[in-house]
Amino acid sequence: MVNKIPLAKPYVGKEEIKAVSEVIRSGWLSLGPKLTEFENKFAEFIGTKHAIAVNSGTSGLHLCIKALNIKPGDEVITSSFSFVASSNPIILEGGKPVFVDIDERTYNIDPPKIEEAITENTKAIVVVHIFGQPCNMEAIMKVSQEKRIPIIEDACEALGAAFNGKKVGTFGEASVFAFYPNKQITTGEGGIIVTNDDETAAMYRSWRNQGRDDSGEWLNHVRIGYNYRLDELNCAVGLEQLKKVEFILNKRREIADKYTEKLKHIDGIITPYVDPKVEISRWVYYLQAKEGLDRNKILEYLNENGVTSRAYFYPPIHLQPVYKKMFGYVGGELPVTERVSTKGFIVPFFIDMTNKQIDRVCTVIAKAVRWHKR
Ligand SMILES: Cc1ncc(COP(=O)(O)O)c(C=O)c1O
Q: Which atom of ligand 1 is closest in space to residue 56's alpha carbon?
């Protein structure tokens, strides 16, 4: 029995262990100096005035949607080819997600289709930089400015990515990054909102901390809030990860490039396209099975032969059982999203992958295609 190569692995080690131990020894486990330092360093890395750490990417997106002050009937445009957390907060806040189809090559929301979907009820556009490839922010900001509709960036998969040299996270009114262990950097669970707006930054801080204000009074609640705090242990890990971020991002690019070099000639497989205007931040290594090849059979072969792989994102959000039930989607509404989601899959991708492991994954993929075509 061959050892199975995992899909993802966090890049954490002795520095993180030491940092967490120090926090534990200090006895200051929440709302302390590590939180402030992590937020300041993160804001500096992205280039925004504020960073507000929260306990997940989902919590961050929830607060960004909450800040829109949605009323019944309001719509928020987004992409269905994403993780469900891009859209759920819209519903939680009483709005209606309006899904727009994606671009065939980048898998990101397609700007001309955004324009077609705008109505007088459109309150915002949540753009998702899928798999770390920035959306076409030139076209999207043009629409946003012309129609005066705010942008929220779901940058949960795209830490360090840039469009035309400008980092993602700096385009929207507010943007969110996530730190789950499969992300580029991790805090365990965790997320962060970035913004240049002083007023909403103060609201985010209050909401994440049970609606307290900054008076320092522990039992003084000036609005209804949540416990979305990120504790000192998480922040200590995040700080160590930030010290390594450039190394991590470069290494991920290197591994993705190796994969592409080895896989691009395999007939039947589509390797990731990278828009020349972007600097991609590799989150997963994502492949598509070409027409005529059954993605699920390829997956079965890979998983049976020691290469962990998974369909991604399948089903897309609008075809998740709860969305079908709530909104009556039956399939056929978003042709590109639906086609892409039946063809795409991810393969092992983590930064201490050896060349031998990369070779093994590529060999098994080539065999899977040959086996399928026989
Ligand atoms: C595009 C996208 N949005 C939101 C999230 C939610 O982040 P979290 O899992 O930290 O809540 C994720 C995480 O997987 C994601 O990939």
A: 10
- Give the whole-angstrom CA distance, residue 342 versus residue 66: 33
How much distance in Å is there from the Cα of 58 to the middle of ligand 1?
A: 6
Q: Do the Cβ atoms of 160 and 154 come closer than 8 Å?
A: no
> What is the distance between the alpha carbons of residues 172 and 177, in angstroms, rounded to a whole number?
13
Gap between the Cα atoms of 121 and 119, Å rounded: 5
For residues 226 and 59, what is the distance between their CA atoms, to the nearest angstrom?
Answer: 9
Average pLDDT, the chain: 97
Residue 56 Cβ < 6 Å to ligand 1: yes
Phi, psi of 370 (to 5 degrees): -60, -45
pTM over the 0.85 mark = yes
CA-180 nearest atom, ligand 1: 10
Residue 338 beta carbon below 6 angstroms from any ligand 1 atom: no
Query: Under DSSP, is residue 77 helix (H, G, I), strand (E, B) or coil?
Result: strand
Digit-coded pLDDT (tens) for 281-294: 999 999 999 999 99
Residue 155 · residue 61 · CB < 8 Å: no
pLDDT digits (tens, 9 = 90+) for 177-234: 999 999 999 999 999 999 999 999 999 999 999 999 988 899 999 999 999 999 999 9
CB 329 near ligand 1, within 6 Å: no
Hey, which bits of the chain come out as E strands? 50-54, 75-79, 96-100, 122-128, 151-154, 162-163, 166-167, 174-178, 191-195, 269-270, 278-279, 285-289, 310-311, 344-347
Kindly compute the dihedral angle of the four CA atoms of residues 196, 197, 198, 203, in this order, to the nearest 10 degrees: -120
